[in-house]
Amino acid sequence: MIVVERNCIKADGVMSINPTNGTRLAFQPCHTDAAVVATLAVTARAFRRARIRPEADRLALLGSMAEALAARRIEPAALIVAEIGKPVTEALAEANNCVDSGRQIADPFGRRRTFRPYDGQRPWPRTGSTGHTRINQSATGMDQ
Questions:
Q1: What pLDDT is attached to residue 132?
Q2: Dihedral over alpha carbons 103, 104, 106, 107 (to 10 degrees)
Q3: Residue 28 gets which letter from DSSP?
Q4: Cβ atoms within 10 Å, residue 20
């Protein structure tokens, strides 16, 4: 049963259905208000611990997450195909784009460096002959 309450839809949960044949793929029950509050408290504590870790450690963790996704990119691509009905090549491109984004954030210039937030004074880092920062966008995964 779905009930609209305070401008949001409340239901028993969310069901993932294959659009091509109507097969039920998965069901995720809704969380109780208490479970949401508890999860937010755990997340806030984890954030406070993580923010004091050295940046290199945080970037290494993000890089390892990107590599773990790269090793298993077929699984999310298959889920995208089943849940959304995208062609396999587009689903793989989407998974590869997530991998590339994680790698880019973890090591933006292809080498380990200390990140300094832009202070509005110094010029942006420049690479390449055009003077523009090169960002690797490989949704196809062909350059890997």
A1: 45
A2: 110
A3: E
A4: 9
Token pair of 11, please?
């239901």
3-state SS, residue 17: strand
Six-digit token pair at 131? 């003077």
Structure-token pair, residue 108: 């933006």
- Got the DSSP string for 32-78? PHHHHHHHHHHHHHHHHHHTTS-HHHHHHHHHHHHHHHHHTTHHHHH
Q: Which two tokens stand for residue 64?
A: 């390892």
- 116 confidence band (pLDDT: 50, 70, 90): low
- Which residue carries 């999310």 as its tokens? 76
> How does residue 35 score in pLDDT terms, banded at 50, 70 and 90?
very high
Strand (E) or helix (H) holding 138: none
pTM: 0.58
Residue entry with tokens 């029950």: 29
Q: What is the C-alpha separation between 90 and 95, in angstroms, rounded?
A: 9
